Amino acid sequence: MSNLDAITFPIDFVWGVATASYQIEGAANEGGRGVSIWDTFAHTPGKVLHGDTGDIACDHYHHLAEDVALMQQLNISSYRFSLAWPRIQPDGKGPLNNEGIQFYIELLDRLEKANISPFPTLYHWDLPQTLGDQGGWTQRDTAYRFADYVEMVVDALGSRVQRWITLNEPWCSSWLGYATGQHAPGETDLAAALSANHHLLLAHGLAVDVIRRDTDAQVGITLNLAHVTPASEHELDIQAARLVEGNANRMFLDPIFKAAYPTDMLNLYGDSVAHIRRDDLAIISRPIDFLGVNYYHPSIVGSRERLHEHAAMGYHVDNTKAPTLLETTSNAIHLRRPGIPRSLMGWEIEPKTFTDLLIKVREGYGEIPIYITENGMSNADYARQDATVVDPERIEYLNGHIRAVHDAISAGVDIKGYYVWSLLDNFEWALGYSQRFGLIYVDYPTARRTPKSSYFWYRDLITSRAVR
Ligand code: GBH
């Protein structure tokens, strides 16, 4: 391709990388940190692949200076990370743990010196176990405990932060945590997932109020939005796809931006939504400054009643996705198409679906500024004899998806920034260390970091603001 094909991003477009506390920090028993539901889950045999845990992870807790230096050399303007609630408030209530907050103050200081703007997420799945013991997100009280925690954090760190993210992917917390059981706390109960879904949204709204009251900072939420295509034009497939899309997207976007849950979903769930109080929707829908979007892969959904027809089209049932209870209720099933490239996660790679999704969000919910808070690809990377790590597949994936973001901007979507998932290879939840998403390779036994080819590629892209 010639230079004529290069497309250029605005000068103030934010380029970053993203991580999350439990996935990188390690030091699980240091600095007065309390236990989280992910410590408990990972230490329960059979829950995480190979019995992996986040006890040590990337040992980021002891590599702060090195990791910030790696960010600075990468030339990023912003770093998205999450705060571990059990480091800051070990029991999920009570006073602030000074040693815990000190760790994040040191991080913020180092970022400031490196001229990297912090983009903290207040909750990326590591709920204090004491709150888990009381029912976790199925309990309304947990939302109020979250608001108290946010108040303490904002009091301690507020002067150094201009943009806050309340929650990361509440769909995963509620549906993977309480319906499929693939994530902590590992429950499989539709009613529990629905109440978790609602209380997470309430927690978000209460946190927005606290941040507005105590700071001038911007605030938003990060959602994992799905791009869902029906397996065929058949009415049953269309219906199944609509429900999966409703569960993933509209159950979050509608309450936040329209102060109402979608009626088709409420009808589907029936009596299980009794815990929703009308007044809550006013809190959940408090205006926010931006929407964070995490996007990885498209989804193809059909009705279980049409398995034979799908097979005849060359589609396979996607076994990486455990059927949620929603899918059991609605007969929806995830499928894979033939001839579409996939990542090591098994996720289909199709960048133009990213553009379509972003345009749809704008059409459905208006001109809200958007940050792409995660996008990236896992691979089975390895260090070669000469100690380099070469990952052309990741470069191709990122290139295609960053182009897709540019296409969405050209179509009028207000996109402010893009964060690669992830800075480092890290603990990929139920899949442990088997999936590598980093721009930087981590040799877990030694914690040695090696930038991959994609790291240097991203650095050059940030410098030139141009993508081919
Ligand atoms: C994100 O979650 C997390 O924020 C991050 O911690 C994690 O490491 C990263 O992505 C990589 O996995 O088609 O209905 O079965 C993962 C987002 C959302 C991706 C749900 C898989 C499957 C939905 N996930 N999606 S479905």
UniProtKB/TrEMBL annotation:
Active site: 169 (proton donor), 374 (nucleophile)
Pfam families hit by this protein: Glyco_hydro_1
Key word Transit peptide present: no
Gene Ontology terms, MF aspect: beta-glucosidase activity
Matches recorded under Gene3D superfamilies: Glycosidases
Residues holding substrate: 23, 124, 168, 296, 421, 428-429
EC number: 3.2.1.21
Organism name: Ferrimicrobium acidiphilum DSM 19497
Homology family: Belongs to the glycosyl hydrolase 1 family.
InterPro entries reported for this sequence: GH, GH_1_N_CS, Glyco_hydro_1, Glyco_hydro_1_AS, Glyco_hydro_1_beta-glucosidase
GO cellular component: cytosol
Keywords: Carbohydrate metabolism, Cellulose degradation, Glycosidase, Hydrolase, Polysaccharide degradation
Catalytic reaction annotation: Hydrolysis of terminal, non-reducing beta-D-glucosyl residues with release of beta-D-glucose
GO biological process: cellulose catabolic process
PROSITE patterns: GLYCOSYL_HYDROL_F1_1, GLYCOSYL_HYDROL_F1_2
Protein name, as recorded: Beta-glucosidase
EC class of the enzyme, as a word: hydrolase
PANTHER family listed in its UniProt record: GLYCOSYL HYDROLASE (PTHR10353), LP05116P (PTHR10353:SF36)
Domain of life: Bacteria
